Structure formats: structure tokens, C-alpha cells
Amino acid sequence: MDTQTDAVVRKSVKVPLSQEAAFRLFTDGIGSWWPGITHSVAGSAGVEVVMEGGVGGRVFERTPDGTEIWGTITAWDPPRSFSTTWHPGNDAALATQLSIWFVAEGPNATRVELDHRGWEVHGKAAADRVIGYDTGWDTVLGQFVERAGG
Question: Is the whole model's pTM more than 0.90, yes or no?
Fold first, then answer.
């Protein structure tokens, strides 16, 4: 596999929430669970993470010193899925593509699937980015599962 063009970071977690509740917590409630101290551009306790729902909405961190854009919503299908460009700390020209699906597995059980691709925009740095995000998403999704009661 050519890491720069074929790599996809895939993750899957289960939460004890309905599909709708899981989608709402992940999107509208992102500020309540995102680990801003370790997974933000500013890396500070003052980080607030925000997702503006709907195509064209922004995903960003708000800090005492200003706002950092992380991405722009490119697809919005509540409560089933959304996609966004993803470029925290980088110019939008270096955006990768992040897609999240919420698959109902019962009235109070949802599997959340993450697919992060498009690493070729980072050229020779792509392999390192893939490795970093592969472990980074474990931490982020772990916080989501914990907040969801899992």
C-alpha cells in the first residue's frame, strides 16, 4: 500500500445511546466531550470545540486568543452521518476528509464508524500524519464513549 495515496484511518466504537442521541452528542455536544487540552491547536484548558450543523457549517476551536477553523461540513444526514474537511492547524489546502456514520444496533445502542482519508495532500509527511491520527482518534473517541456512558 502506498501510504500517501491509499491510507485510511478507520475506527469504530459502540455507545449505549440511540442513533439520534449519539449523533446529537457527537455534533451538537462536541464541546462537552472533545479533549481540548490534548487534541486542539491551542492545547489549552480554555478551548471550546464547536460544530455548526449543516453543509457549510464550521468545525472549530474557540480559544481566549481567537478561533481556529478545523474544517467545513461537506455532507450532513442526521442522524445517520456527516462528513467534513479536516485541517486543524493547517491551511484549508491541506485538508483531509473525515466521515462519521452512526449505525443503530438497537433502541439504545449505536456503532459509530470513523473514516479519515485524503492524506496525499501532505506529501512525504503523510505517513507520519496517518500514524499520529490513528492513535489520536483512539483518544478522542474514547472520550466520546466515556461521555456517552459507555
Answer: yes
Helices 126-147, 19-27: inter-axial angle, 10-degree rounding: 120
DSSP 20-76: HHHHHHHHTTHHHH--TTTSSSS-STT-EEEE--STT-EEEEEETTEEEEEEEEEEE
CB 113 within 8 A of CB 100: yes
Superfamily of domain 3-147, CATH level 4:
START domain (3.30.530.20)
pLDDT at residue number 141: 98
What are the domain boundaries of the chain?
3-147
Find the helix or strand (DSSP H, E) in which 147 lies.
Answer: helix 126-147
Tell me the per-residue pLDDT of 67-114, one tens digit each, with 9 for 90 and over: 889 999 999 999 999 999 999 989 999 999 999 999 999 999 999 999
Please give the pLDDT value at position 6: 77
Is 50:31 a contact under the CB 8 Å cutoff?
Answer: yes
**What string of DSSP letters covers 79-96?**
TTEEEEEE-TTS-GGG-E
